[in-house]
């Protein structure tokens, strides 16, 4: 779309953030005949180190929408079990084989492919507008009533007039900041440092998806390279940097199943990307005319890779509640409250589980005994397969004419 300085664009709903939550919600709304504008600050979806797990719950939604077959033609890896190596012993943490769904596996797919797929499917409907390289600037009010958003594309400013603004712009959401939402933070004991290593012919076969020889190392097979994640104590990255890159690479070499020489590729700190993990959620996800979903409403830990899938469930729940009010031309605060009411329990329950599994300490003693417990009681792997694969509440899209 060509933007002009001072131009005005109108939509039934403006979604800020073209991530999983934003694009899924946009697809469902335009499929119902509504006009939706999605604001995305980046020019494309090609960003490394984003969640790449598409869980059985999301695959089931794609099946219900008639999109599953096309989605699974894209390159992906299928994982029926999640495993971890703890104390030299491989433990199955989650088994998806008994789930009552079409796909009893996690599909590991680069998020940029998944987002491109959703955007292309949404673009098949006339009501869809995606504004990329466009930055959300501020909420617009007329007589103290929300009437839209102001955005910037390069040096040009545009106003999107709308009756509803959705903040789906992630854990650093500008929408939730602009709206003045308050939140609770539950901390997280660790961060993750991500980096790449190229694949070589003699590399060990570690299976598909995430794997690794030690609990603090994640390896993701990207076909032509390894995406590596190294878990560190919260806030220790600057301390590690002060100790120097050689010392940090020595620690990485101990955790990786490769020869230390492979780390010659990591020759500067700029090749290491810090993911600062946090767990938080808004007290209220909404104000009149504004709703936050996904990470904008509740930042999750990467444990279990559930963040993307909770965001998708939020989007489906939001669409189920909001399609009829949007079609009538009036979305009330009570409508928006219904979305949070629907999604509050699975959000809180998932975050509590993540805190428990993260090994957060209480009174100086570690509380994270979950992996060893699963190893001792195998039936738990099926329970966790259900909790990770489907979550605490699944959503089914309505209005699928």
UniProtKB/TrEMBL annotation:
Presence of the UniProt keyword Acyltransferase in the record: no
One Pfam family matching this protein: FAD_binding_3
Domain FAD-binding: 12-335
InterPro entries: FAD-bd, FAD/NAD-bd_sf, PheA/TfdB_FAD_monoxygenase
Keywords attached to this entry: Oxidoreductase
Domain of life: Bacteria
Official protein name in the record: FAD-dependent oxidoreductase
Organism of origin: Pantoea eucrina
């Amino acid at each position: 779309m060509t933007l002009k300085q001072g131009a005005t664009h109108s939509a039934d709903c403006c979604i800020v953030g073209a991530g999983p939550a934003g694009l899924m919600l946009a697809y469902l709304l335009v499929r119902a005949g509504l006009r939706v504008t999605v604001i995305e600050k980046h020019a494309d979806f090609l960003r490394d180190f984003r969640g790449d797990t598409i869980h059985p719950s999301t695959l089931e939604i794609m099946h219900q929408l008639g999109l599953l077959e096309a989605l699974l033609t894209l390159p992906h890896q299928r994982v029926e079990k999640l495993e971890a190596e703890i104390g030299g012993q491989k433990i199955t943490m989650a088994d998806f084989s008994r789930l009552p769904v079409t796909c009893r596996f996690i599909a590991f797919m680069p998020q940029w492919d998944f987002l491109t797929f959703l955007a292309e499917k949404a673009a098949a409907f006339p009501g869809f507008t995606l504004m990329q390289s466009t930055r959300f600037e501020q909420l617009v009010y007329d007589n103290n009533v929300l009437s839209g958003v102001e955005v910037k594309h390069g040096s040009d400013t545009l106003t999107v007039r709308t009756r509803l603004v959705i903040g789906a712009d992630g854990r650093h959401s500008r929408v939730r900041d602009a709206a003045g939402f308050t939140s609770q933070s539950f901390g997280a004991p660790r961060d993750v440092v991500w980096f790449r290593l190229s694949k070589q012919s003699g590399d060990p076969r570690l299976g598909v998806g995430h794997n690794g020889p030690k609990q603090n190392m994640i390896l993701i097979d990207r076909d032509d390279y390894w995406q590596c994640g190294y878990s560190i104590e919260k806030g220790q990255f600057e301390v590690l940097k002060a100790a120097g890159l050689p010392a940090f690479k020595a620690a990485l070499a101990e955790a990786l199943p490769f020869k230390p020489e492979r780390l010659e590729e990591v020759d500067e700190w700029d090749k290491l990307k810090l993911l600062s993990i946090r767990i938080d959620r808004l007290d209220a996800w909404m104000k009149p005319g504004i709703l936050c979903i996904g990470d904008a409403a509740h930042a999750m830990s990467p444990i279990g890779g559930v963040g993307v899938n909770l965001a998708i469930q939020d989007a489906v729940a939001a669409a189920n509640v909001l399609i009829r009010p949007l079609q009538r031309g009036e979305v009330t605060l009570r409508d928006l409250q219904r979305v949070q009411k629907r999604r509050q329990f699975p959000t809180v329950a998932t975050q509590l589980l993540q805190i428990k599994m993260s090994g957060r300490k209480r009174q100086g003693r570690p509380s994270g005994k979950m992996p060893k417990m699963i190893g001792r009681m195998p039936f738990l792997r099926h329970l966790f397969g259900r909790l990770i694969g489907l979550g605490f509440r699944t959503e089914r899209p309505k209005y699928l004419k």
